[in-house]
Amino acid sequence: MSRFEESAPARGGFSYDLCKRNEMLMQKGLKPSSYLKTGTTIVGLVFQDGVILGADTRATEGPIVADKNCEKIHYMAPNIYCCGAGTAADTEAVTDMVSSQLKLHRFHTGRESRVVTALTLLKSHLFSYQGHVSAALVLGGVDVTGPHLHTIYPHGSTDTLPFATMGSGSLAAMAIFESKYREGLTRDEGVKLVAEAICSGIFNDLGSGSNVDVCVITKGKREYLRNYMLPNPRTYVSEKGYSFSKKTEVLLTKITPLRELVEVIEGGDAMEE
Amino acid sequence: MDPAKTIPLEGRTDDLLRFGIHGVKSDIIEPHPLQSARRSAKQTQDEMKKKILSNTYGAAFPMKMEMDRQILSKFQRPPGAVPSSFVGLEAFTGTMEEFGFEDYLNDPRESESYRPVDMHHGMEVRLGLSKGPPCPSFM
Description:
The complex is a heterodimer. Chain A is an alpha+beta fold. Chain A has six helices and 13 strands. In chain A, strands 1, 6, 7, 8, 9 and 10 form a six-stranded antiparallel β-sheet that branches. Chain A has a five-stranded antiparallel β-sheet with strand order 11-2-3-12-13, with helices on one face. Chain A has a two-stranded antiparallel ribbon with strand order 4-5. In chain A, a hairpin with a 5-residue loop joins strand 9 and strand 10. Helix content of chain B is 46%, strand content 0%. Chain B is built from six helices and no strands. Chains A and B meet through helix 1, helix 2 and helix 3 of A and helix 3 and helix 6 of B.
């Protein structure tokens, strides 16, 4: 058995080679480089037909706004979406990885993914990294058992709720939910409530800002309303106007569809030797 | 006692010319607390699964599985440029269906200090003539 481990190839993934060097540098006084966080407001709620997720679109790097229009609602499966708060790279990498695992699982079982599957995969992954992967997530989706909404904390604990908020603006958004949420909301009421909660986070929290993204998931359908509301428009307009010197001419309007290179043959023979 | 942290008394994994001077401190003090946790996590999970199986199906079943696993892990290519693909072993242990960061991030073959395995040294390690990892971790 030990022989096998010696001849197995070196695996990728996290590498701890530079940890000692970083420790030594920090002891000598070097400040650690700041990373992109999504000090953010993410919310989710369950309405009568499904789940609505909402997020703001600001990514901060210390006191600087690094991305004015980033996407915080990540795709996990056609019926499951996940909002992420915390370190931007961590949330994106974790959600991408679990989305690939869900796809493999779908190929293996031949069924639609369930929200609890995504929840268990995320939770066991985050717990095994003991909180060093700082990703706080709001996971929502609709599967055969109905609509589900869960929150996942960076250390791996989870919660199942009818409405949830996470991120630095979570208290501002939770105030709106606690006062206005009720069971059996219609789609328009739900979207309006989610947009209100995100706006409350945008205007009252420094780490959240820019626009509102909303995602509505119902049985068999999902709508990703990117930039549903733009409450912070750029007001700068050049007085002189913009002059484009060269006029662009349309020479030809013809669409040539690309030829399919792969032919799918139904009922063909398996590879013949 | 964690076996990775004890200093073996007989035979040191050093070959000054190949691996450089062996520092004792680097063996004992782990650079990051996650390293030992991640290394032992898979082992403890496998052991727990084996215990559950033996409680459910009797002691013979996990023993047979272990024998199958050992047989499958013996099918390897000789050490060298082409790495062994443990297709049977991966299908048996279910590793083939797993997907993690190590599959697409930080591929060691794409690192800037990649050093291909020395075939002769790898064969000596496998036969027990030399000690030490087949490939050193630095250039």
